[in-house]
Design goal:
The protein is an alpha/beta fold and 275 residues long. Helix content is 45%, strand content 17%. It has helices at residues 17-30, 47-50, 59-64, 69-72, 97-111, 127-134, 147-164, 179-196, 211-218, 223-226, 231-245, 255-265; strands spanning 4-9, 35-40, 74-75, 81-83, 116-121, 138-143, 168-176, 200-208. Strands 3-4-2-5-1-6-7-8 form an eight-stranded mixed sheet, sandwiched between helices. α7 (147-164) packs across α8. The longest helix has 18 residues, at 147-164.
Length: 275
Amino acid sequence: MTVQVIGVSGGKGGVGKTNVAINTAVALAHQGKRVAILDADFGLANVDVLLSLSAPQTIEQVLSGECSLEEAMISGPSGVRIIPASSGARQLTRLSELQHAGVIRAFSDLAAQLDVLIVDTAAGITDTVLTFTNACQEVLVVVCNEPSSLTDAYALIKLLNRDFGRQRFRILANMVSDEDEGRRLVQKLAGVCEQFLTVSLIYSGSIPFDPALREAVKKQQPVVDYAPSAPASRAFRDLAMRVSDWPMPRKPSGQLAFFLENLIQQPVGVEAPHE
């Protein structure tokens, strides 16, 4: 059984990254996919908040041995499973070898129950964000039509390329007026990257600015459920269809184990300055 592991990142805060992660997950679940979201924002964990869910246990309790990964997960809309974040997850690099093996085994066992794992990273370009993003099979960078969004997205891509050798990035334009604006936005980012980096940017669609999405956030519901016919909902369903067509992992199993091993091998929680 293969599992797609997709990191949703953006560099800048406020680009709608978590809403993208949630609505894409729910749209994939509507297709019959078994989906989980790992909230990897250990400073401002908010996936459960945006869905009005209570998280009595988090990944911190998993790492301390107080509960299993299965016990920490909570059920969200359309059967999407949420792995709540906690600052305790920064201790990944401080675990013993036995604890490492236990966490990896927990995620490996989860592989049989999942088709897609979406990793919602924190904002910024800290080492923690870079590590979680690079550990994913696919990287979806969310941008909006603001200069700071493009600047921060470029910085994220540059560091992942320079420090980890990552060369392929999928780009999603969010909160745009129409598809043309979204394509122009991605082309603008691609133009800058082509001048200074050896990377490939793949346009992954656009999500229009939609008052229904803001209303859905207030109601703490995914817009694809709250207003299925809204333009944003249709765009998220289109994105989910694209995700379903992305290449699957080559290895027949162990994608989640690979994800965790990548995290453990990197200095999560030890922030270092970048150029």
